[in-house]
Amino acid sequence: MPEVVICIPTFRRPQSLKRLLEAIAALKTSASLAVVVADNDAENHAGFDLAEAMAPAFPFPLTAVIAHQRGIAQVRNRLIAEALKSDARFIAMIDDDEWPHHDWIAQFLRVAITTGAGVLQGSILFNHPAQADIVRASGPTTMLQGAGNLLIRREVLEKMAQPWFDPAFALSGGEDREFFVRLQAAGVSFAWADEARCFGDVPETRTSPSWMLARAYSIGNSDMRVLLKHRPKLRFAEFFKIAAALLLCLPAALLLAPTARRMMPLEKMFRAAGKLGALCGAQYQEYAIVHGA
């Protein structure tokens, strides 16, 4: 039986998925592996077809499934359900627009042993200056940043109430943040594994100022929705921070207008606007649009 099941959610990115599967096939590790691909495009299922075609020659068991209900939370839940059918000790998650370094799993398992953490996240290096790398020193940490490069102990998932990822965040994102908040409240330990690195793709559609501001709004919106779910009675300080950002960031952006640094206050302002939108009941559906191929 596999020691690690690698779970891949995919939606209309067959070229990126092929690159990822080829990188997984080249992994150097003594651990026994299996791979599950869940395609969230039930109509065209290009990712499912690709995985099915690659499975006979793949160096590890490769299973393809369809996640019929649209949404990032739904496809992640489908993957976990499939992975837990095995006796694997760990479940790894990596997105279809990423690909791992050849020692990705080996480094994850090494840090898992040294830290004893229930959930670990690895660093992500991007191929475009418009996107900052997600990097942190290895060791225990209080919170993680996303579900794109994770290693989860089996018992963590077995102890959680289902669904593991909240379907209310289907197309908005934030399902990973809400997942981590619940785990943190349950006393699950987190760690960062900087050496368990993967690389991320940045399509040109994600490099424009308009996309970066929309992304900031989306993060603020989903973060506030997570906060409202777990702390429905917000403190005055939260409202003060939102108001301060909305009032102060635009003048700061105008002062910095001649420089590239103007985006920093603008992104803070749009993040605050996203939080305010969530307080008013608005949900921003970031994942209704697909970037990349």
Q: Which features would summarize this protein structure in a list?
A:
293 residues, alpha/beta, Spore Coat Polysaccharide Biosynthesis Protein SpsA, Chain A, 41% helix, 18% strand, globular
Q: Estimate the helix proportion, in percent.
A: 40-55%
Structural category: alpha/beta
| Main sheet specs | 9 strands, mixed
- What's the structural domain tally? 2
Average per-residue pLDDT, rounded, comes to 90
Q: Report the sheet-strand fraction.
A: 15-25%
From the spread of the alpha carbons, the general shape counts as globular
CATH architecture of the largest domain: Alpha-Beta Complex
Please count the helical segments: 9
Which parts are unreliable, with pLDDT below 50 for 5 consecutive residues or more?
none
How many strands in all?
9
CATH superfamily of the largest domain: Spore Coat Polysaccharide Biosynthesis Protein SpsA, Chain A
The CATH topology assignment of the largest domain is: Spore Coat Polysaccharide Biosynthesis Protein SpsA, Chain A
Radius of gyration: 19 Å
CATH class of the largest domain: Alpha Beta
H/E element order? EHEHEHEEHEEEHHEHHH
Outline:
This protein has helices at residues 14-25, 46-54, 72-83, 104-115, 154-159, 175-185, 209-230, 236-255, 263-279; strands at 4-10, 33-39, 62-66, 90-94, 98-100, 119-126, 139-141, 149-153, 190-200.
